[in-house]
Every structure is written in structure tokens, then in C-alpha cells.
Amino acid sequence: MLAALIRFSLTQRLLILVLTVILIAAGIRAFSGLPIDAFPDVSTTQVKIIMKAPGMTPEEVETRLAVPIEQELLGIPRQRLLRSTSKYALTDITLDFEDGTDIYWARQQVGERLAGAMGNLPPGVSGGMAPITTPLGEMFMFTIEGDLPLAEKRALLDWVIRPQLRTLPGVADVNSLGGEVKTFEVLPQPQLLAARGIALKDVLAVLESNNRNDGAGRLNDGEEALLVRAEGAIRTLDDVRAIVVQTKNNRIVRIGDVAEVRFGALTRYGAVTRNGQGEAVEGLVLGLRGANAQSVVSGVKARLAQIAPSLPAGVRIEPFYDRSNLVDRAVGTVAKALMEAIVLVVILLLAFLGNLRAAIVVALMLPLSALATFILMRLSGLSANLMSLGGLAIAIGMLVDAAVVVVENVESQLADAQENLPTLHLN
User: Fold this and answer.
1) How do residues 209-231 score in pLDDT, each as one tens digit?
2) What's the total number of domains in the chain?
3) Are residue 34 and residue 68 in the same domain, yes or no?
4) How many whole angstroms separate alpha carbon 266 and alpha carbon 76?
5) Rounded CA gap, 102 and 95, in Å?
6) Inter-axis angle of helices 323-352 and 293-307, nearest 10
7) Quick one: which of 91, 92, 84, 83 has its CA closest to 57?
8) Rounded CA gap, 281 and 364, in Å?
9) Sign of the torsion formed by the C-alpha atoms of 143, 290, 299 and 154
10) Mean pLDDT of 142-149
């Protein structure tokens, strides 16, 4: 069989040359569109649900959130595992599905069940399904450095940087960690409330009802129409202090009369430090499941470079984790192994066979086989990562041995063909 294949290749050189050109073009195209990552994605189809219940203890979160949601999620087709972790004010529910399950179908099934369970949960509970990512989806991390307070750094990350990064292709989400989330705090004074006969629920009611904008119709003036609205959304501390709580005996009682109004922060459950030099504000870019890590990181870097001029003076973005470094090293390992194999094959074949043509044939087989591998990886949906490219580098060494055998067979075929050539006798 091998001898027949070699004989066919020698007799159909033009066809083999055309097929080789097609293989090179297809291999380069496949490699350019091949998802490149540092690690193989071995995780199953997974859907995570994260629910928040401020103020609840882990026992309450387990009994009032995790258990009702888990009971509602039982019986979903192709579900393999259901587990949950309950912490203070937080529960994390994970569903694993069988291999090959479409992630969007799985999220649709979970979303339908979760919508049915939300009506039975306590008031004030928020949350939902986590982004479509994997445990290895952390692709880029950075901190915001400068002389700004932690609250302003966090606001800069939440309202300026994060929205722009989330628009990039392949980015599932951008997590904001550390810092302080700025809030308005109202601290009622019990003695002042009691002196005026005001209950705490009255303060809560007026704060909720006076923090919104309402439409008030329109006024027609000839061919023009003027839109009318009532602006009541809170913008400053003075806006909160000016909210009327009670009007009695021609006396107006405002929030500022019975409470202290100040800036505060949401309850913190942790902190971020960098190099042991105090707290920091961190941005964590999560890649979409199956996304090309190299292109995602490149897009994030380009967008951060565009954002940098619009940041306040003295504020800068400093990356401290870049997945592209691992990706470049993984790809560089294969490229280095391929070049070393080609050089060593040429040298060894020249030393032992003494045939330059045989050395060139074997050397050309190495990159061609790598290009053919990229085509099959693209068709099968595999990504180029440390494991797959490392296996390719090992296979190159095995291919050299097979190539030497093929070259020896080719040389013997050529030798037999030369011996069988007719001999001409000239008189």
C-alpha cells in the first residue's frame, strides 16, 4: 500500500504540488481562525445562579433561598448534578449538564424554572444567572492606581471603564472588586422622631416616593408641544435633606430636621490589596465560553488604551494578569519545537544519508503535517492550547521517524526505477 502510494505520488507530481498548495492555504486559514488559549476547556456545560439577600444569615439563606430554588430546578432534562453553597447574604447554585448539551438551551431551561421560583422568595432578594463563562474564564486583571479615594476609583470602574469593556466581542462580564460603592446614608435620630410623632416607616415611605421623576403630560402652544415632567430624583445630599416628612400646624418637618444625611458605602464582604500596600480597586475581565482568548485580550488592551486619555489626571490602569502571555508562550513552544526539528532533521539526514533532496523532503513534511492538524482541529472545534499544541510538538518527533522510513522507501523506488530503464547501444 505504501509503495503504491509513493509510486502514484512520483508519477502525478503536478497533482501532488497542487494539493500541497491547497493544504498550505487551508492550514493557514484554519490557524488564523483557530481559538487560541493557554489552557484546555475541560469543564462541562454549567449554569450558575447567584442570589443575594442582604442581612440574612447562612442558615436563613439556605432554608429560604437555596432549598426553594433547588426544588424548583429538579427534573430538568440532561441534568447531571445540582449543588449549592450558602454564605452570609449570598447563595451560589450550580447545575452541571451532560457533555454536549447546548449552553443556551440549558440556560433557557434554568431561566424558566427560576422565574417560577422567584415569586416564592422573600422580598428584597435579587440576582439571577451568572454570565456564560467557565472556571478558566479569567483572562485579564487590572487595578486602578492614582491619588483618588477608593469610592471614586470604584465609581470610575463601574461607570466609565466597565461599560466600555463589556461591549467587546468575547467578553462575558467585567467584575468590579474592592473599593467602596458610594451611597446616600440617612441616620434617623430617635429622639427627634419621637418629639414630632413621626414613625420610622414614615421616613422610609417618603424617601421611596420622593426619589423618582414623573411625567406630567405636555402643553400645546400652537404647532409646538412642550413636555412637562416633575424631577424628584435625588442627586445631592441637600436634595435628601429637603424631602418633606410631615406638615402639621403650618410647620414643615424635613429629613434634615430628624436625621443625619451623609455619604456612605454598601456593606463590604471583602477587600482587594496589591503588593501588601493597602487596598486597591480591581477589574476582572471574564471571557465568554469558547471565545478566542488571544483576540479577547487584544481587544481589552486596545480599549483600555483608548480609555486612558479620558481618565482623571494622575490616574492610570495597571494590568497584573494577562492571559496572552501564557498564550504566546504556548504557541512559541510549538514554533520553537518545529524549527528545531526541521534543522535537526536536515543536519542528521545530510550526515547519515548524504542526500540533500531526502533531507528537504522530510523537513517539508513537518510544517505540512502541522497545517493539516490545524485543519482537523478547526473542523472538530478544538482550540489551540498548551495541551493540544504540546501534543503536536511531541508528535513532530514521532513524525520524523516515519518520514525517514518514507524517504528510504522513495529512494529504493527510484533506485529500482533506474535499474529497470532500457539500455541503449550505439554502434
Assistant:
1) 888 888 878 888 888 888 888 88
2) 3
3) no
4) 36
5) 13
6) 130
7) 91
8) 52
9) negative
10) 93
Of 133, 152, 173, the residue that ends a domain is 133
Tens digits of per-residue pLDDT, 31-42? 888 888 777 777
**Residue 128 included in any domain:** yes
pLDDT band for position 337 (cuts 50, 70, 90): confident
Cβ-count burial 118-131 (b if 16+ within 10 Å, e if not): eeebeeebebeebb
| 400 shares a domain with 384 | yes
Whether residues 118 and 49 fall in one domain: yes
Q: Which CATH number goes with the domain that contains 187?
A: 3.30.2090.10
Q: In this structure, is the dihedral angle defined by the CA atoms of residues 138, 144, 149 and 153, taken in order, positive or negative?
A: negative
- We report the CATH number of the domain holding residue 372 as 1.20.1640.10
Domain that holds residue 72: 44-133
The verdict on 88 and 127 lying in the same domain is yes
| 297 within 8 A of 36, measured Cβ to Cβ | no
DSSP assignments along 380-411, one per residue: HT--B-HHHHHHHHHHHHHHHHHHHHHHHHHH
Same domain, 245 and 199: yes
Q: Within 353-385, where are the H helices?
A: 356-380
Q: Which of 104, 129, 105, 106 is nearest to 117 (CA)?
A: 129
Name the phi and psi angles at 94, rounded to 5.
-125, 135
Contact 145, 316 (CB under 8 A): yes
Q: How far is CA 97 from CA 44, 78, 130, in A?
A: 7, 6, 16
Contacts of 307 (CB under 8 A, 6+ apart): 160, 161, 164, 317
The CA-based dihedral angle spanning residues 18, 21, 27, 29, taken in that order and rounded to the nearest 10 degrees = -110
Write down the pLDDT at residue 427: 46
Would residue 177 count as lying in a domain?
no
Distance CA 322, CA 320 (A): 7
- Please give the C-alpha separations between residue 125 and each of 49, 158, 366, 368, in angstroms, as whole numbers: 13, 22, 59, 58
Largest CA distance in the chain: 142
424 band by pLDDT with thresholds 50, 70 and 90:
very low
Amino acid at 216: A
| Whole-number percent of the chain with pLDDT over 70 | 91
Dist CA 22 CA 365 (whole Å)? 15
Query: How confident is the model over 391-401, as a mean pLDDT?
Result: 72
The answer, yes or no, to whether residue 335 has pLDDT greater than 80, is no
